[in-house]
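Reply to dn_fold:

You asked what the input looked like. This is it:
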Amino acid sequence: MSMLKLAFQNFKSSFKSYLSLIISLSFTTMILCNFMNLVDSGILNQLGESNARNVAVIIQVLSFVIGCFMLFFVWYSTNVFLTKRKREIGIYVFMGLTNQRIGKLYAIETIFIGLTSLILGIGFGALTSQLFMMILMRISEITVEIHFQFSLQSGITTALIFSGIYLLFVIKGYINIVRSSVLDMVSANRQNEYVKQRKILLVFKAIAGVIILVLGYYMAIKEAGIEVMGNVFIAVVLVVAGTYLLFGGLIPLIFQSLAAHKRFLYKRERNLWINNVVFRIRKNYRTYAMVCVLMLCSVTALAFGFAMKNRYDGIVHFENTYTFQVISDASGYRQEFASLIEKNNDIDVSSDIEILTIDSGNTDNPYAMPYALLAYSQVKKVAEDTGMDFDLPEPGDEEFISLNRLYLMSLTNDLVEEIDTINRQDYRSIASTDTPYLGYMQENMDYMIVNDRVYDELQIYGQKMHLYNYKITDASHFETSVKDIQSSEHCLGLVKIDPEREEIAWIKILYSVSIFMFMVFVFAGGCILFMKLYNDAFEEKERYAILLKLGISKKSLKRSIADELLFAYVTPLVVMSISSYFSVKALGNVMHTSLLSVNIVSVLVIVIFFVICYLLSLVIYRKNVGI
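and this is what came back:
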């Protein structure tokens, strides 16, 4: 019998065992293929050149992330598969086969798995490409013409990425088998990830893990100024390292201590699963830590998407505060411009304000943009005219309040103290606000709100301009008033806002993509745990057979299995839920928004998915061990 035929028969007979691996690889391949097709299909061109370019960059970055994740996932899954198959393949040595031929058999069988996953992934990717685009655009609330178009280039690119990664680990597995002894092959499944550690080492890892994790949590929520992004990066590194040490030290230590207390151990048949949990977590703590980090990434990715969407909505609202903003050289023309607008449109709200721009030669930085000053009383009047909130304290003679634009992301927060110098006098910021008192004009520069006395004193160092703001009832008809406004001799400049413009529509795509990334990471984490428990079941088959012969009832063994698998799912989930609060809190600090509700909902979704995985694992585990 040829190697190819034997490998195919092995693949066919063990197809059910490979099913979870094939589904997981196919799902990841399908997502990557759909992202690639989104760029290559040309549908993004309907969003405009700038949006198409930004979305393409985002998709390429995410494709790289998925590719890196695929590398890691294929490495893990092929290792699990190799360990599971080594003992069976090792039997072929006694049939006279050399290690090279056994390695070849393994490689061919593994290639069948990869080829099946690739065909299914690209096939379903092609079939679901239109649905994927429809869902993506629907979530993004973007209207484009969608037609079925699957790019051959995206399929080829996906196949090349997957094949390159997969063949790398097939070759690695082949070399591993060629260099293995018969004893290594036969006992491989008893050596998987097992790390024998002394109790003192567990204590050290437990203490270190708790300290590092707490430091990570502290850095995540620590109030900071310009170093806020650095704190977030440090927090990420510390939380990942702390999670690894937690699963490698504290949790095994807790269960070893519980197993040492006989009163606890022998109640409710805990001895049937507590000791096995101790053994399992010492074997599989890397897997549990990996799943926990994956879940943490999924929650953070989803929170980031919602934060960007909230900020997008805020920017759109910010820019659409006024429909028209008229720049003039004098005061007293508010009613004149209002009359011109009301020829064709109704005005909802209007306001006017004087802006004092200080020449850069009179500041501490002559090469920077001119300082723009606003009088406190005038800003308060704008708030009254437009119905905006106003709770700002009046600045002192050497103080000011920063009136800022709305950023997508900020590398600093409000703790950064600003000191600006005008005519050799320092002015210190006491507060900041991004309330859109000046609407779109607030996007151009930052403004200093000073008290009226300081404003009057500084008028000799700058130039004054007057800004008249109007918001009409039906903003879609703004064009009908443009010529009338520009016909006025007092109109030196006009800012008009088109409510239908989509200059930053790419942010909405980023929001919908984050939802898909959340799904990918959650699915991957669940599959990794599922595969690990599935393979563990084959190792435990003999142990449960012995327990049955000793007179332990099937009912007791079923409860024991349920408790053991419950630990495998609940422990990463609990650690992730705690860590996610701090990671989302850190993200909220950067984005200046509250994401607690997103955090709660995302964790609940993961809980539901893990419950489903747990129930499936329970049924299959019991079946595989013969209970």
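Strands lie at 324-328, 347-358, 371-375, 399-403, 419-422, 425-433, 447-450, 462-472, 493-496.
Hope that clears it up.
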